[in-house]
Design brief:
Belongs to the protein kinase superfamily. Ser/Thr protein kinase family. Keywords: ATP-binding, Disulfide bond, Glycoprotein, Kinase, Membrane, Nucleotide-binding, Serine/threonine-protein kinase, Signal, Transferase, Transmembrane, Transmembrane helix. One of its GO terms (cellular component) is membrane. It catalyses: L-threonyl-[protein] + ATP = O-phospho-L-threonyl-[protein] + ADP + H(+); L-seryl-[protein] + ATP = O-phospho-L-seryl-[protein] + ADP + H(+). Strands 26-25-33-29-34-31-32-30 form an eight-stranded mixed sheet. Strands 38-39-40-42-41 form a five-stranded antiparallel sheet, sandwiched between helices. The termini are far apart. Helix 8 runs antiparallel to helix 10, helix 8 packs antiparallel against helix 13 and helix 10 runs antiparallel to helix 12. The chain has 13 helices and 50 strands. A hairpin with a 4-residue loop joins strand 14 and strand 15. Helix content is about 20%, strand content about 30%. The chain has four domains: about 150 residues, Bulb-type lectin domain (Agglutinin, subunit A, Orthogonal Prism), CATH 2.90.10.10; about 100 residues, no CATH class; about 130 residues, no CATH class; about 240 residues, Transferase(Phosphotransferase), domain 1, CATH 1.10.510.10. By secondary structure, the protein is α+β, with helices and mostly antiparallel strands.
Amino acid sequence: MKPIHLFLFISIISTLWLTSTSISTITPNQNISDGQTILSDDEFFRMGFFSPSNNSINRYFGIWYNKISVTTIVWVANRQTPLNDTSGVLTLNDQGTLMIIDRTNRSIWSSNSSLTANNPVAQLLDTGNLVIRNENDLDPDDYLWQSFDYPGNTFLPSMKYGFDFVKGLDRYLTSWKSDDDPSIGEYTNRFDRNGYPQILMRKGSEVEFNSGPWNGLRFSGMPNLKPNDIYTFGFVFNERELYYKYELVNNSVVSRLILDPDGKIQRYIWIERRLEWELYLSGQMDNCDRYSLCGPYGICNIKDSAACGCLSGFEPRFPEQWRRADWSNGCVRKAELSCEGGDGFVKLSDVKVPDTRRSWFNVSMNLEECKQECLRKCNCTAYASLDVGTGRGCLNWFDDLVDIRSYPEETMQDLFVRMAASELGRKAKSKKRVRAIVIPVLVFVTVLLGICLFVYRKRKQKQNKNKNDYIFTGLDSIVVFNESNTVNDTTKEDLELPLFDFNTIANATDNFSDECKLGEGGFGPVYKGILEDGKEIAVKRHSRESKQGLVEFQNEVKCIAKLQHRNLVKLLGCCIDKDERMLIYEYMPNKSLNYFIFDERKRNSMDWSKRYSIIIGIARGLLYLHQDSRLRIIHRDLKASNILLDKDMNPRISDFGLARSMEGSDSRANTIRVMGTYGYMAPEYTIDGIYSTKSDVFSFGVLMLEIISGKKNRGFRHANHDLNLVGHAWRLYKMGKQLELIDGTIKDSHVQSEVNRLIHIGLLCVQKYPEDRPDMTIVVLLLGSDIQLPEPKQPGFYTERRRPQEAESSSSNPEWSSSNHLSVTYLQPR
């Protein structure tokens, strides 16, 4: 029999065997023909021949997700040698080598293992790893070959990304040429072992992005790589291996990291509910991540109007180019170093450390030993600790310092830059001059503030004012007296916010007529206005009777002026005229959420799909405030009346008068001035004045349950108990009757599985202790996926209350903005 006929005969026999058996392994001389596939044991991954798009005639052998509706390839064998027809066959020979054979019986790709095989089998594992092993040997260290050692553009969980020095392996990512061409593209993302290891993303031979070295917590240039509830990660570097690896915390989450054809490093998570991959994070975040943007001894700060600046003690090499924003030539020293003694170091905090390809490291030194080691070497330009967590390990640099950037809102790494003695002396003299100026000024200001405080107390006694009055001292400065009788002088920030003329607003609102009045909030009345160009606006006018004052006005302007998100209300400007304080917003024609869900007639128009969409929108807006905005913002007054609805019924979070911003990695604070709305405030905030992102999560959970039920949490009444709405929902959940919570008007439109899931998530959000509640990143993920949910614990305020003589109705009058039932509590320190 001719070889080609023998090959076809074997193919036919193996085809019949494969189609009648569900297996994850193939044995020698068993084939996979085009049109056949093999599944992993858990049926999560599938492998076989495919074309990358309908427009491509090329055929490749690869691995993809089996349970995801959007075909997503994670590995390709013959990237560089595609077939142009469906004649291809994958086979395993007796030597343990996988081969792809074309119609001429020619091998176009093989696995090429040099190890000796004994009854080899090839198996597709549940991790998506295709391995060749000896039949009775399941030890991963004994695999003859595995696809995880030869990744393409995708980095999967459990994969080791980096070097195996013993086996001589270098595992790195290469981009596809395009979305429908898996051949090797322009970009690589790969560990560089010169100096201390770091991952460099290159376009051809040119470095485009540098991850920075591992600093004990994360890569120095990737501040968004933080501990989370989705995956764990780690770094190993010893004499045998150098690799980075991640593992999923929950196997129901599907996540992958890719290097796309445009050179972007991106992590995606599959959202089953929307049947799409959602971007979770990117390696390159902004312009400062462009490699060496600021040149040698330059530092990039994305928050500065000119992103690049010179390190302290340095100046632009070519000032004229620098002024034209051509920073590539970087900076030079103002004073040259001397190796004869006297050099010192200037500390840079919270930075990405420079490119480490010209560096030396020692894992056992402490920071002082590292400093002395650098001083001993004339060409050492900087030093840093290897591990920011323990303070151990030493890094010395021996060349120009390149690719430094500042992370002003993150706790990152400290870098100590070598400086000439003369430059250090100049800094010391400068500090003395500053002290000579600052100390007398501080004394003068202290005396002046003392006089102001004395005058204020006298006025307070005469006028018998409340302890928390506020006094205006002009438009450019605000003096605030708080409950501890301290004084803060806050200069008005340049927020690039338009100032409206009082007459313009008065004309737009028909001189604040009752016909234009939309409602009354905690800040004051809200009016609809129409500007001369026909633009509709909403005007919040401060009321003299309001318990909210200047602080809330200033706070709302500062918090929301530069925020841009589809689920946040847009602040158009403000008006400050004598005693008048007004905020001008875009007009929301559908008023607020409580106008619909708490009104017996209007909530009929809110079917389940609208309510579900509103919940998702609020969650995304809150996630933006907590994680993605310029500052981490805690709203502190999230409730139905502060959710406005645009013309398409999309939710917009509004009213930032009580909001607080957090710097850096802070996520909680406390206050003795507790302000908010009862029924929405978290227990730790109401009782101890502690607020955090988790207190907003509690409010969101209450709001979810209100939207589902059409009832208010505070004022809720039930014939069989005296629990509030949250307690009622918890009681029903424990009885397995949570569907009884839903509003009767949506019984015909609701999706039972969605309602069950959202009630469950709502109860997770209102758990008593903040550490038990998920953060908004997880909430958004849970809302958009079918990930298994943990069991909720008892909610906060789960106690029956005394029933008053006259029960307050669970519906309310419609209002446009902050509730006029705002509760203000002053807690004295214990």
